[in-house]
Amino acid sequence: MPVDAQLAPLLQMIEAGTPLHVLSPVDARASFRKLAVDLRPPESLADVASVEEASVAGADGPLAARVYRPCCCTAAAS
């Protein structure tokens, strides 16, 4: 099945890049940010109303997490 013409250049860029697992954490974050945020039009990104530090259960104990709430949403009851 052919790849969508608009998606093909992005897939080629990802394939040509260095795999994230061989980069340092700082470089991997920068590379991921480039794909996930920087290449998107600014108007497509949601404004963030709040950021909350949280903890979720993991197999080997609690894991740190961060909850981002966009401006358009109200806090859900917990």
Summarize the structure.
The chain has 78 residues and is α+β, with helices and mostly antiparallel strands. It is built from two helices and two strands.
Your description of this structure?
The structure is a single chain. The chain contains two helices and two strands; from the N terminus they run ααββ. It is of the alpha+beta class and about 80 residues long. The protein has a domain at about 10-40. A two-stranded antiparallel ribbon has the order 1-2. The longest helix is centred in the middle third of the chain and has 14 residues, at about 25-40. It is extended, with a radius of gyration of 17 Å. The protein starts with 7 loop residues before the first helix and ends in an 8-residue tail after the last strand. The mean pLDDT is about 85.
Q: What's the order of the H and E elements?
A: HHEE
Identify the strand order in the major beta sheet: 1-2
Task: Give the integer mean of the pLDDT values.
Answer: 87
Strand content: 25-35%
Terminus-to-terminus distance: 44 Å
Helix content: 25-40%
Low-confidence residue ranges: none
Number of strands: 2
Structural class: alpha+beta
Largest sheet: 2 strands, antiparallel
The shape, in one word, is: extended
Number of helices: 2
Could you tell me the radius of gyration in angstroms? 17 Å
